[in-house]
Design a protein that fits this description.
- With about 325 residues, this protein is an alpha+beta fold.
- Among the domains are: about 80 residues, GMP Synthetase, Chain A, domain 3; about 130 residues, Beta-Lactamase.
- It has ten helices and ten strands.
- The strands form two sheets. Strands 7-6-5-10-9-8 form a six-stranded antiparallel β-sheet, with helices on one face.
- The protein is elongated, with a radius of gyration of 28 Å.
Length: about 325
């Protein structure tokens, strides 16, 4: 006689499967209910509605608003067409005026469309931040080899540089400042806001040289752009921040930019240090050491262990030597 009764293990397995299936069904019904409620709320408030489950979110648009700000304020940018942005909010009463003005002032973008989304939809959107590479920056915001080479072609001498800084469009100002720094062989770009304008100085042969001044509104866009490409927080202005950007110039040549932002009385100062310009691999005899100095170095590097420190003031050549 055959016993068709399932074993205890099989019975518990079937029960677990049924409970899991029921849980998923209930979750799906709850999700559907929340989406319907949000759609009805959008209709009452004469707004557009979208369900973000399965919706393609543009990473370049998403990073325009830092994750911390998106979580706190419950708004985000999901798509961009030219200079037009599409934003989503979870509260019909959410005021986008402040962020709209900031995106317009900093990058020239306009929030032209906004959608109401459910809380589950927005929580799904927040998870997308974790999968966005830090290198994902829109081509009209990030630094590129082509844009830098174009700027270098328009800055052949100091007079041309000063005129270019004065007349160039804000969107090309950062490339112009970097091109000028390369042309003058400076190690750093210092941008310091003052009461009425913003000073631009280059460190040339270790000495800070005044180059030009720029308006505060133009500098604000440059600073926001640098923060974004350097992985710094756009909405944080009261603490120091550091970042780094590397541009591949083709072949084996790269330029590294070390970025430093520091709050001051008139706004945040910005220092851009350029590394990788004119780097050459020198042998010990080519360093210019003579007499006892050369003898001491050769004796020290021949030892099996120990440390040699290269020290000196900013711009003295520690990195390049």
């Amino acid at each position: 006689m055959t016993n068709n009764r399932p074993s205890d293990a099989d019975w518990h397995g079937q029960q677990s499967y049924k409970e899991e299936k029921l849980s998923k069904k209930l979750s799906s019904l709850q999700l559907t209910s929340q989406e319907k409620e949000t759609a009805e709320s959008a209709k009452r408030n004469k707004m557009d509605y979208v369900n973000l489950h399965g919706f393609p979110i543009d990473p370049e648009s998403l990073v325009l608003i830092p994750e911390e700000e998106a979580r706190e304020k419950k708004y985000a940018v999901i798509t961009r067409t030219g200079k037009k942005l599409t934003a989503v909010i979870t509260d019909p009463k959410c005021d986008l005026k402040e962020i709209s003005n900031r995106l317009a002032d900093d990058f020239g973008y306009e929030i032209s469309q906004k959608f109401l989304v459910s809380t589950p939809s927005f929580e799904l959107l927040l998870t997308r931040y974790k999968s966005v590479p830090k290198s994902v920056i829109s081509s009209d915001i990030g630094l590129t080899k082509e844009a830098l080479e174009k700027a270098q072609g328009k800055v052949q001498n100091l007079a041309a540089l000063k005129g270019r800084i004065r007349d160039v469009a804000t969107t090309e100002l950062l490339e112009t400042l970097i091109a000028g720094s390369i042309m003058t062989k400076s190690s750093d770009i210092h941008i310091d806001p003052q009461k009425d304008s913003v000073d631009v100085r280059y460190r040339i042969d270790g000495i800070l040289q005044n180059i030009s001044t720029i308006p505060h509104d133009a500098y604000r866009r440059v600073l926001s752009r640098v923060k974004l490409i350097g992985g710094m927080k756009l909405n944080v202005t009261n603490i120091p921040q550091d970042g780094r950007v590397t541009i591949d110039m083709g072949g084996d040549k790269t330029i590294d930019f070390r970025l430093s932002v520091l709050p001051t009385a008139y706004g945040e100062t910005l220092v851009i240090r350029l590394l990788g310009l004119g780097e050459v691999a020198l042998k010990i005899p080519d360093l210019g050491l003579r007499g006892d100095a050369a003898k001491i170095i050769n004796e020290e590097i021949a030892k099996p262990n120990g440390m040699i420190l290269t020290t000196g003031p900013t711009g003295s050549g520690k990195t390049t030597s």
